[in-house]
Amino acid sequence: MDLPAIARLRADLAAAHFTQAALDGLWGPDAADALRRNERLPALRALAALRARTGEPGALATLAELFLLGGRVPESEVQAALPQLGADGAIALGLLWPASAELIAPERSLRALLELRPYEFTDSRGHASWWITSDLGELARGGPLGEDHVLGVGGASRTLSALMLQNAVDSALDLGTGCGIQAMHAARHAGRVVATDISQRALELAAFNAALNEIEGVEFRLGSLFEPVAGERFDHVISNPPFVITPRVEGVPSYEYRDGGMVGDALVETVMRDAAAHLTPGGVLQMLGNWEYTAAVPDAFDRLQGWLEPALDYWIVEREVQSATRYAETWIRDGGTRSGTREFDQLFGAWLDDFADRGVTQVGFGYVLLRLSDETPTMARLERLHTPLGDNEWGLGVHLGNCLAAHDWHAAQSDAEFAEACLTVSGDVTEERHYWPGNEDPSELLLRQGGGFARTISPGTALAALVGASDGSLSVGAIAGALAQLLEVDEAELRAELLGGARRLLDDGILLPPEA
User: How far apart, in whole angstroms, are the C-alpha atoms of residue 59 and residue 67?
Assistant: First the structure.
C-alpha cells in the first residue's frame, strides 16, 4: 500500500472540502434527495449549470462528478482537483482510469473505478468525518451489481454502527468487514481490532479506508466467519454478516456482500451458535440478522432461542417483518434488477419457489446482542419493537450500554437491598395523562421515552407514582410503603409488585440506578 500517495489524496480531499454538507450545498436539497433515491439527473444538471455560470467546475464539483455520479472528467480538471496526488497518482492507486471512448481526444478523460464519498457521524467520543471507498454503485454503473461487489456505507451499516456499544475494551472483532466501516468504528473504543472477510478485494478496500482515515490498530484476515480467528476470544464482536436469504439455484446471483452461501437463515444461526466460543467472559456480540417464520414454526423467536448457548445473556429485538413476497422484491431490486423486466420476473419466481418449498411465510429483521456470562445468565429478552426509534444523539449503542449496566446492577441486588436503593427518572421520560371530560382522575396514564427505543408504557397507578417520586432522595421501599398507606392496600404485595416493575424500568432505561 502506497501510504505517501494515500496521504496526498487525504490532503487533496480536505483542501476540496469534500464533505457531505458541502456536497448538499453544491447541488441543493432537491438533487441531494434525488441522489438518495439513486436518481442522479438533478445533480448532473446542477453541476452543468454551475459550469455554465463559472466556466470552471471547481475541485468539489469535479470530485463529486467523478466519484459519486460516475461521470467522465477531462484530465486537466482532475489535475486541478487533486493537485498533490495528480491524475497519474489517482490511476496508480486504482481510483481512476482513462475513459476508453475518449482515448483519441486531444485531452484524455478519466472515470472512477471506485466510489469515494464522505461519511460523518457522532458518537460518545465526539464528531468525526471520514472518506470511504467502495465499488461503484448501481447509479454510477448504470446496471446490476457484480457478484463480487464491495458495498459502501448503506442503511444496514449505519444501523449497526449506531447500535455499537462504545465501552472501552481491549479487543474487538469485525466479522465480515466489507469496506471496513465497522472495524473503523470499533477502533475508537478497542485497543486492537481484527477484521475478517471472505473477499480479498473487500479486505484490500477496508485496509485502504483505514489508511486513508489514519486509523491504526486494525488487522485484516481472509476467511469465512470465525475461521480466521479459530481459538481466539474477543471482548466485543460486531457483525453485519451476509444474512440475506437467497435461493440456492442456478441463475440467481449470489452477492458476496450480502449472501452467505447457506440455505435460509442458517448463516445467522451459525454465527449465534458459534458466538460463545469466541467471546471473553463478559464479552458481547452484536449483529444484524434475518430470521424466517415458517408454517412448521410460526413464531421465529422459538427458533432463535434454540440457537443460543445456555451460557449466554441475550437481548434480541425484531424491528421489522416482511411477507415473503415483499422480502423477495426488496432484495432483487437491491441487486440492481428493475421491476417489470424479464430478469426481475425470473428472479422473483425463484425466490417465491424457494420460500414455498421451505414453508417460509415471513422474514423478520432485527438486532442481536449476546453476552457470555461469567456466572449464571440473568438477561433473556425477546422483543418486537416495530415502531420508530427515539432521538439518540450519540447512537443507540450508548442507550444499550446504559441498560446493560443498569440490569447488571439490579440483578446483583437482593429484593431487600434493592428496596433500599434511591432511583432517578431518565431525563428523556415524560408523562402523559388522558381524561374523560369532567373527570378529575385520569382514564389513562402513559410514560413516554424520548431516546432509546422510544417506548411508551402504561405503568398503572402505583408504578407511575413510584416513577414520579423517584428523584434520588427516597428509596424504592420507602416509596412503596407510603403508596401502600395512601392506596390502602397490602404493603407486602405492593412492595413486591413495585420492586419487579422498577427492575423492568431499569432494564428499559426509564429509571436509572444510583450514581456510583
Answer: 12
Q: Are 41 and 34 in contact (CB under 8 A)?
A: yes
Separation between Cα atoms, residue 106 and residue 512, nearest integer Å? 70
**Which residue, chain included where needed, has cell 486513508?**
212
Name the grid cell of 442: 385520569
Grid cell for residue 369: 446482542
* CA dihedral for 391, 393, 394, 400, sign (positive or negative): negative
Instruction: Give the C-alpha separation, 406 to 411, whole Å.
Output: 8
Q: Residues, the chain, total?
A: 516
Beta strands at 114-123 and 511-512: parallel, antiparallel or unpaired: unpaired
Q: Where are the alpha helices (DSSP H) in 266-308?
A: 266-274, 300-306
User: What element of type H or E holds 146?
Assistant: none
Amino acid of residue 423: L
CA–CA distance, 209 with 187 (Å, rounded to integer):
13
284 and 236 Cβ atoms separated by less than 8 Å: yes
Return the C-alpha cell found at 44: 448532473
Give me 64's grid cell: 463529486
Question: How many helices (H) and strands (E) would you count in the chain?
Answer: 19, 18
Lookup: cell for 70: 460516475
What's the CA gap between 386 and 275, in Å, rounded?
26
Written as nine digits, the cell of 33 is 434527495
Half-sphere exposure of 384 (CA within 13 A, CB side): 7
Q: Sort 493 into a burial class: Cβ within 10 Å, 0-12 / 13-18 / 19+.
A: exposed
Average pLDDT across each block of 10 residues of the chain; the chain has 516 residues. List them in order: 95 96 90 85 86 84 92 92 96 90 66 95 94 84 73 92 96 97 97 96 96 97 96 97 89 81 90 97 97 95 95 97 94 84 91 94 97 92 96 94 97 96 96 86 88 95 94 95 92 94 97 88
How far is it between the farthest Cα atoms of the chain?
94
Determine the Cα–Cα distance for residues 448 and 446; give it in Å rounded to an integer: 6
357 DSSP β-pair partners: none
CA 290/CA 306 separation, integer angstroms? 15
Q: How many whole angstroms separate alpha carbon 119 and alpha carbon 185?
A: 12
Q: How many CB atoms lie within 10 A of CB 262?
A: 16
Query: How much is the pTM?
Result: 0.93
Written as nine digits, the cell of 361 is 411465510
